[in-house]
Structures are given as C-alpha cells and as structure tokens.
Amino acid sequence: MRKLTLLAAALLIFCAIPFEASAAELPSDDPAVKTLAAERGGFTIGSSEGTYEASGGSKTGLIVPLSELLAELLDCPVAPVLLGSDTETRNALKNHVIDFAVGMPPGGGFTETHPIAERSPSLFTGGGSVVIYSSELALEPVIEAVNRYIETGGIEIFSSWYMEAEKEFARYTLSTLYTPEEQAWLDALAESGGTVSVALESDNYPVSFYNEQDDEFQGIAVEVLSQIDDLLPVDFTVATTKDSTWNEIIGELELGKVSVVSQLLFSEARRNRFLFGEPYATSQYALISKADTPTLERYQVVGSRVGTVLGTAYEDMYFEWFPDNRNSTPYDTHDQGLDALERGEIDLLMGSRYMMLMQMNYREKP
After folding, report:
1. What is the average pLDDT across 127-144?
2. Based on C-alpha coordinates, what's the Rg of the chain?
3. In this structure, which of 20, 23, 109, 200 has its CB flanked by the most CB atoms within 10 Å?
4. What ranges in the chain are assigned the alpha helix state H?
5. DSSP 8-state symbol, 268
C-alpha cells in the first residue's frame, strides 16, 4: 500500500489577510480533486485544542481561517473541527470523522499504523514543520495538489500568512499571562483611546539614538517597543525630541509626565523611585579616555579631570566609587561629554562600553 504524501507547510494563517491570486497551480484545477470534492460535498480539517494551530487571538483560533484558505484553493467547502487532544484528533482521522488534520508531524504508533509518506515540501517553524495529513489513501490527490501549489509559488502566500499568524499567536499567549489587574488596566486604556507615553534618548547608541539622516529615533529600545506595540492593544507615543536632555527625561519620568523610558540603569539611589523591568540588554560601566592616555590606577582617577552626564546612573556610580572626587565636570548629554573629551577639557568620561560603540559607530570617530 502506498503511503500518503505529508504536506509540510506553514499553514497557520491570519484571517485579516485577503487571499490573492498566484501564478501557482491551483489545486481546484486538478480533475481528481474536483471529483473527490463533488463526491464528498467538501472536506473537514481538524486540530487539537490548545495547540498553535487551534489557538489564536479569537475563540475559534487559526483553524478557521486555515479552512477558509483551503476552501478557496480547493473550490469547495472545508469545515474546521476543533478536537480535545492529539489522541482525539488521530482517532477522528482513523474513524473518518475528519478528512485531514493540521499540526506537527505525527509520530510513534500513528505512523506505524497509518500510511503517511516522507516526501514533502518543507517550511520550518520555531519548533519544526507544520503539516497537513490524512489517513485515507483516497485523499492523496488533494494533498498532492496542494503540494504542487506550494512548490509552484503558493509557498509565498502561505509564508506571509504564517508570519502574521505568529504575531497573532504571540498576542494570544501573552493575553493568557495577564493578571486580572493588568487586564483591567489594558481594557480601560484601550476603551479610553489612551496611549502610553515613552521617552526616547537621542544619544544613547545603540539603545536609543536619533538618526539625523533618516530623521527618526532608532535603536534596540525602539525595536523592542515596536515588538511590544504589536502584542499589546495599546499605542505608544514618543514624548521627547532629539534635543531632550537626560536630566529633562528623568525629571519627566519622576513627575509621571512619561510612563516609560528607553533605558534606566538601576542604582541604589533609584531603587525606591522607579519600577524596573527585566533587562533587555546589558553593558559594563567604563571610564573612557583617549587612546593615548596611559593606564591609570584607581587612586589616580581621583586626581584626573572626569566628565559625567547629569542625572545618569553613570554619574551616581562614579560618585559611589569615588565619593571624595571634587574634580568632575557635569554635561547635559553624552555628545557634550564626548566632545569635551576630544577637546582635552577632561581626561576621562564616566559611561559604559555602549558609549564607546557610540563614538566609533554612531559618531564615526574611532
């Protein structure tokens, strides 16, 4: 007995994306598929409840838009069926309650007792292939036809839909982790049309910086906030400009005029003043000097001219390390401090290794 073809494809789709015509060979053009569809009056496809394929941002999950896509491709009704478990799904296939199932490739005893082939076009998700499969040899023409559609260009449509599905599933997963208080806050903010105000730094490369050529804020923090914006039912509003200083930013954060700042380093002085989340990036403190400055011992730092940036954790840490130093000069921005170092006004600038990246890559002054 010949094995059925396993259709390995990222078919987890997002219903908001419309179906588009493709140059690929449509399964509905296959005479065998037309005959099967006419004889059966359509098909059924199932998935296990609580899986990636069945769960989504709605009660029905992603199995419903998947069935809609297949109905479009096969030009016949395709009914979604949500089942309680993988075992129930396999039993439904075995007993012909459903025609197809979607999920991770079946293994173990199922592959030993049901004819499923090895050949398939492959797309890979984070955990492996996602497949459509059946236990009926009579349905092989359907799977073969969808395989041909994927191989002749349809893969692009499935891929774009799958990427949207990943976002939808991430939203769903995150929503299951909210506490009642968090959910109530999000609901209230969404209903009021409110936004979350964010303070972005203009000179903290690569975390947050202002790209003059592109005329926009960029950096790690901006990318992280963009991803969070995709997951939460709220919008972020940038409340700073490229000319905002750090002292102004932290002042507005403390007054509650902004809710989030792109980077806030922990220090004892800030422990009871702000709420800190888990770090998304790390760097080490550093005293930055010109390349021709000799290596200094700790006791020699106190006798050097040291620059700090007002209101920063770098400034707090410097005075924690060197409480007796009276030969320091404060600056409003990192740029001002680096400029002063270049001009020879100071010997050292208190910052981090990120600041050295800023000097070399952002300011292009190695």
Report:
1. 75
2. 29
3. 200
4. 31-40, 63-74, 86-94, 109-113, 140-149, 155-175, 180-192, 220-231, 246-255, 298-301, 313-321, 334-343, 353-357
5. G
